[in-house]
Amino acid sequence: MRDLGAGLRYLGQGQRWVLTHGRWFGFGLLPALVTLVLYAAALTGLAFWADDIAAWATPFADDWGSPWQTVLRTVFAVLLWIAVLMLAVLSFAAVSLLVGELFYDKLSEKVEEDAGGLPEGVVELSLWRELWLGLTDSLYVLWRTLRWTVPLFLLGFVPVVGQTVIPVLGFCVTGFFLTLELASVAMQRRGIPVRERLAMLRTRRGLALGFGVPLALLFLVPLVAVFLMPGAVAGAALLVRDLTGTDGRGPDSGAPGRPQPQPRPHQQTQPYPQTHPYPQAHPQVQAGPPPSPAPGGSVPPHQR
Predict the structure, then answer these.
(1) Cα gap 191→58, rounded to integer Å
(2) Alpha helices (H) along 100-221
(3) Whether the Cβ atoms of residue 218 and residue 225 lie closer than 8 Å to each other
(4) Are 36 and 225 a contacting pair, CB within 8 Å?
(5) pTM of structure
(6) Which string of b and e fits 43-67 if b means at least 16 CB within 10 Å?
(7) Tens digit of pLDDT for each residue in 204-246?
(8) CA distance from start to end of the chain
(9) CB–CB of 256/243 below 8 Å?
(10) Which residues touch 187 (CB under 8 Å, ≥6 apart)?
């Protein structure tokens, strides 16, 4: 539950950051707006042709009587549109990141600088290399998402369960992979490959779901998705700092997936060294015969 709250908190902090940095927020709207226009056209076309697609995909129901044929194909069309909508929510972030690659990378860097500094060993890549890695990583995330979406789509035909439990699971899957997609901006800067990113988020599923599920629900509203995209990138940068243990001076040794440093055998275990590195202010008097008196019967002051 704590991770769920932390994920939601990072989402809110990201939105607050861009609202207080109006210039970054304004530029962040442009890539998301272009992506919205493309997706709105695609989803509208799918809704218009959904009945024909359902009839093509269910030829075995051609001889069914009414109302079963209508019920089956209506359920198929609705589930197909919902499944594509879930993929659109996830791929909306991916396509927006590709369109605005340069800007969102700079935005994420600025957020990390304000949060304490960039990590050590930042990976510098050319723009074309970043675009290629972003494309291949997004395709990998999309493929992993389909491995969950297709079975959930089929389970959607199960009575009762398909209309109650399956949609909830669908939003959880979409939210998790949406977090993975948005976190890729800051993780790519650290040189973390996409498979390792997935493994790291699996160790903090609550954090990923707390961030991604509310965002996935909000992304269902088209115009809201445009306005939330810059803040989503900013919040994902803060989430990655938590996930990797970055404190501004570099990755923390206790971060998930990083080996813990082991002390060497000859290292001191005491909190302080046994010998002081500086000369003592009051050296001890060496044992031995008493000092001989100086001429005149007196002892030098420093030997008394």
Answers:
(1) 46
(2) 101-115, 127-155, 161-189, 194-202, 205-219
(3) yes
(4) yes
(5) 0.68
(6) eeebeeebeeebeeebeebeeeeee
(7) 999 999 999 999 999 888 688 889 999 999 999 999 999 988 6
(8) 72
(9) yes
(10) 197, 240, 244
